[in-house]
Specification:
The chain is an alpha/beta fold. It folds into 2 domains: 109 residues, PDZ domain (Pdz3 Domain, Roll); 270 residues, 2-enoyl-CoA Hydratase, Chain A, domain 1 (Alpha-Beta Complex), CATH 3.90.226. 27% of the residues lie in helices and 24% in strands. The strands form 4 sheets. Strands 1, 5, 6, 7, 8, 9 and 10 form a 7-stranded antiparallel sheet that branches. Strands 2, 3, 15, 16, 17, 20 and 21 form a 7-stranded mixed sheet that branches. Helix 7 runs parallel beside helix 8. The N terminus and C terminus are likely disordered.
């Protein structure tokens, strides 16, 4: 069974979240329309008048103007959109607050609801909803063709109430039925835990306000619990769809004491901005501690900025799967002083310190580690939605070898265990387990995690 070819949409939303490196900005007005556009506007006005005079039913002006705005933005790229009401509220909720619902990030494309990722520990995650699933029915009603606001409205609801979802899961012949009890989704951007061997595990779930400070505090707390010395650190960016560009820069700066973190390049040379280390934090907060960054296909935008910066500066070893590949920056332009209506417009591309654009290709891990503990992981990887799959996505301006865009599918002798075998060993997250074991071996041998980068490159060619 196949469910529509490839999907694209104007917003990556979760019931609240978009996968954007967002630069909020207010503006008094937009550029004036050039004179040569007059014939095009004449056609637009003629169409408006024809609809008002001849359509089978009377049409409200607001509906027509909103449709025209939506159409213009939809013709640009999948991340530009008009936001008001619920859609703007969802974006702002990413920065602060909480909401009641399922806790999933979704993509609305060609009328289909695709799950980008469930938030860790959310009702959707607990119920077994996976990244890459398509939600086809809610409480038995087909939802194909809904607008994203309608789909989100049906999935949200009071905490404690339940909802039945029918899912199409790539690789499965039969639909998957799940019952999810809604909960209060607290936006907890950072969680941490000190693991065996004095290895710190920090999960960054979204790039909302003060993420850099929160991670810094987590490092200090775990170092204290470890008696003053951490043996290693796992920075977990899996299923993190992004957020604030400024917070991505600050988190990167936490681990870097020199050099460039990211550059942002717009339409004109004057719009080029460079972000450097030592602007938010002084020194390396984890100096001398080997770091592994975990990423997957759900790691996008701000997550890719951090992974790319630490990879290019050889400050961390990147593990997991190739990231989403969203290398663009969106700016929020408000229409009114009350900030109730806005246009989210793609205004720039960003580049890693080495000048690499992650647009389309994403961040390629130094060691590809499949999620063997998930029996559907390999099948879902084959159908994973990434930026390059989205209709009208920006094309990477830097020429890249086609082979560099292809995922390595060669068999790796290190990764042959089945999900059932891992479950017997008590391993429910193989990627995290592999990262922790790598750091424990590093602590025993005294070898740095980054120094191991050359070895896995040879192993990947096996």
């Amino acid at each position: 069974m196949k469910f529509a070819p490839k999907f694209a949409s104007a917003i990556r939303a979760a019931a609240l979240c978009t996968a954007v490196a967002l630069l909020p900005a207010a503006t008094a007005g937009f550029a004036q329309v050039e004179g040569r556009a007059s014939p095009e506007f004449a056609r637009l006005q003629a169409t408006y008048q024809r609809i008002k005079a001849s359509y089978v039913e009377e049409v409200d002006d607001e509906q027509l103007i909103r449709g025209a705005i939506d159409g213009m933005l939809a013709s640009l790229d999948p991340h530009s959109a008009y936001l008001d009401g619920a859609s703007l509220e969802r974006l702002e909720t990413m920065i602060v607050g909480n909401y009641q619902g399922l806790g999933i990030s979704i993509q609305m494309d060609d009328g289909a609801v695709k799950v980008i990722s469930p938030f860790r520990g959310s009702p959707a995650d607990i119920a077994g909803i996976k990244a890459g699933d398509y939600i086809t029915h809610i409480d038995g009603r087909l939802i194909y063709g809904l607008e994203i606001n309608e789909a989100v409205a049906q999935m949200r609801g009071p905490a404690g109430t339940s909802i039945n979802l029918t899912l199409f899961r790539p690789g499965r012949d039969e639909p998957v039925e799940v019952n999810v009890t809604r909960g209060v989704i607290e936006l907890e951007p950072v969680t941490h835990e000190l693991m065996d061997g004095n290895i710190g595990h920090i999960s960054v779930n979204e790039f909302s306000a003060d993420v850099g400070d929160d991670v810094n505090a987590a490092i200090r707390e775990m170092r204290s619990a470890a008696g003053g010395r951490l043996a290693g650190l796992v920075l977990d960016l899996r299923r993190n769809p992004g957020g604030s560009l400024d917070e991505a820069v600050e988190l990167s700066d936490l681990f870097l004491d020199q050099g460039q973190i990211v550059s942002q390049r717009g339409r004109y040379e004057s719009q080029t901005i460079y972000y450097d280390a030592e602007t938010a934090f002084r020194g390396d907060a984890a100096a001398g501690v080997p770091v592994i960054v975990l990423i997957d296909e759900g790691s996008a935008s701000a997550s890719e900025i951090v992974a790319g910066a630490l990879q290019d500066h050889h400050r961390a070893l990147i593990m997991g799967e190739t990231s989403f590949g969203k290398g663009s920056v969106q700016t929020l332009f408000y229409f009114d002083r009350a900030q109730t209506q806005a246009v989210k417009l793609t205004t720039a591309r960003y580049f890693t310190p080495s000048g690499h654009s992650v647009q389309e290709g994403g961040i390629v891990p130094d060691i590809r580690v499949p999620q063997l503990s998930d029996p559907d992981a390999e099948r879902r990887q084959r159908y994973a939605l990434r930026e390059s799959d989205l209709r009208r996505h920006l094309v990477n301006e830097i020429d890249r070898d086609d082979e560099g865009l292809e995922r390595d599918v060669g068999a790796d002798p290190r990764f042959t265990q089945t999900a059932a075998e891992l479950e017997e060993q008590g391993i429910d997250d193989f990627q995290l387990h592999y990262a922790l074991e790598t750091l424990r071996r590093t602590a025993r041998t005294g070898r740095t995690a980054v120094a191991a980068r050359a070895a896995p490159a040879a192993a990947r060619r096996n």
